[in-house]
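Researcher: Here's a chain I'd like modeled. Treat it as a single chain, no partners, no ligands.
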Amino acid sequence: MEPGDPTEAKRPAGGRLGRRNRPPATPVRLAELPKAQRRLAMLRSVAIVVLAWALILGAFFVLPIGHESGLRAILRLCADVALIGALIAWQIRRISAAELPELRAAEALGVIVAVSLVAFSAIYLALSHETPATFTERLSHARALYFTITIFSTVGFGDITPRTDAARMVVSAQMLLDLALIGAGVRLILNVAKSSFDTAEADS
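Model: Modeled as a single isolated chain. Structure tokens:
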């Protein structure tokens, strides 16, 4: 690097530009990209979501999850709700600094839904392991995930239903969180993506 290089003055004392100090990327609408770049960006986002689901679901089936006592499962519910809230906040920051906010928002929704499903599946699995009569049948990993998805999708086939008050309270909490996630959470994430363009247009 030549003395007096203007890029040298922009570097912090450590010599490297920290990630927090990097300026946010100028947002670009997906429709403005050339067709080839748009297709590549969409495929990349799909791959990220698929990989995230594979890792999250793989961890659920492989790790020793679902062996907590009933009380610890309820406490874990509170921790999982806080985790999902923190994940949403972190994803919103990433969306606001992304070059393609629309795709980043889609990736964020995919990851948040996967984490939410696995979090509640682990709680249901723990309740079923402690007291097999908690549900109409003893839950395995697959059955717990299946039950969680039926609640999330509001289908509720009725083949697996909660029998104890503790299980009903957890199911009720999931229903309320699903409503908040689908309603307020999705709208918030999409609004952040939209506001990124509005801010960029106002600054230009």
